[in-house]
Amino acid sequence: MLYVRNIRLPLTAPVAQAQARALRTLGISASQAARCEVARLSVDARRGHPVLVYTIAVTLKDEGAEPALAGSAPCVAIAPRQPLVLGRGTKTLPHRPVVCGLGPAGLFCALVLARQGYQPLVLERGPALDDRVRAVEQFSATGILNPNANIQFGEGGAGTFSDGKLTTRIGDALCGFVTETLLEHGAPADVAWRQKPHVGTDLLRGVIRSIRGEIEARGGQVLFNTRLTGLYRDAAGRLRGIETTAGSIPCEALVLAVGHSARDTFDMLMAQNLPLVCKPFSVGMRAEHPQTAIDRALYHEAAGHPALPVGEYQLSVHVGSRCVYSFCMCPGGQVVAAASEEGGVVTNGMSYHARAGTNANAAVVVSVDGADFHEDPRQAIAFQRGLEQAAFAAGGGGYAAPAQTMNGFLAQKAALDLKRVQPTYDRGVTAADLNRLLPEELAAALRQGLAGFDRKLKGYTAPDTVLTGLETRTSSPVRLLRGEDFMCTALPGLYPCGEGAGYAGGIVSAAVDGVRVARALCEEYAPPEPAVEGEYKE
Question: What is the pTM of this model?
Fold first, then answer.
């Protein structure tokens, strides 16, 4: 396959014009191409006049002729297909591997293992997706929280109730495998070529169900409403079994993909003296603007043109040793109640695939790290929990969230002067000064960072912008140390995986880490004999 990059065209140009230019650049006719399709489409709005920027993928009927064309122009490159290659270990695995957690990391790890004949047993502390959606809807309507079925826990993990964003900076070849798998299971076709692909929470649910269906069809088994509570070692110090809320399970290979909010699991791991350390994370609040205002700030007079995607931004400013940045931006979305513990308010953002809502929202957060907590992971977790409990109290109970408009936050007053922007947080908001809920150093950094945002995106600090707090679950506050073999350095057979273990940050990077761990497990062990496996009953 050949990539022809940087084909710049006006908003009115059809796709066929980009394809024709790619063929001219290669010096070939349409009859010589087996396929000529969009590989990437972005928008360059930096000079105030947006243009479309295409990368076109061309596959020749005679693929052997492609290398000769790879250097025909600076914008042409060859992209050989990189299939997922898995080894096969020789060590005996008496029992099927167990994957703990059915978020992106656990889901992709279990899928790869199932495709290789390992018949994984998957534990998920929350319910299947349909029951989980009902629990989230009940919480939104009534304030009755199920600690194991919410925005954080249940089939699909925290990413299920998000924008379904597939952007990542990790640059791993396995990202292509993740995208292909999502497409196979029903993700919209444009995730293969959009500059900032997203699935949307509505379509992502069907994709998750489909992947789980393949895992089960290939011999895997999923136990919902089953939480990991303990680990057992043999005399040599290796993993030999696990304890769960459904009972004991023999296990020599456990993939720990519990997500960033499994604080009770982190407590259990620390009680067993496993090597958890602090890692950086961030805290702040959600900022809501009119989506039309964001579009105008990005696209200027072209805002609203049908060829342009809904506007989204990514902003960052360094304030001393800290970074203030936007996170998980949800165009046309809503702010959601994401608590997983009673008595704590947590905010997050969510968008449907159409991104048709009135407001844009994004987390505005400031970084913290181990130095803030004396390198004690317990203190880091306690810090998160303390902020959430303070937000609950400031909201007045019932999981209402504290909120204020931008003019109030910058002036450090509890003002909620609602005008253009109506808050979308589903449990309702209460006027409060978010500055008072954060340590002053962090609040001051956020105020300074917001001023920097306004210099980069005009109108960001408009007085009626709504800020809703607090956002505390940007990523896991801890990391469980693992070696080059992907096993925990203190417990052979335990594979820390994904965002909760501290090795990913987002849907794609978590899924990629799940694939990496599955590959490592395959290289270590041979699949268990099907005859030795009994079914575990819920």
Answer: 0.93
- What was the pLDDT predicted at 538? 37
Q: Which runs of consecutive H residues, i.e. helices, occur in 70-222?
A: 104-115, 129-142, 174-184, 201-217
Q: Nearest to residue 338, comparing CAs of 201, 127, 145, 478?
A: 145
Hey, what CATH topology would domain 2-78 get? Answer: Alpha-Beta Plaits (3.30.70)
Length of the chain equals 538
- pLDDT for the residue 168: 84
Domain with CATH 3.50.50.60 in the chain: 98-277+480-532
Mean pLDDT of the 383-391 span = 98
User: Is residue 456 within 8 Å of 419, Cβ to Cβ?
Assistant: no
Residues forming a β-bridge with 228: 244
N-to-C CA span, the chain:
48
Sequence-ordered alpha helix ranges (H) in 305-431: 377-395, 406-411
Topology of domain 98-277+480-532, per CATH? FAD/NAD(P)-binding domain (3.50.50)
pLDDT (tens digit per residue) in 4-43? 999 999 999 999 999 999 999 999 999 999 999 999 999 9
d(CA 272, CA 259): 19
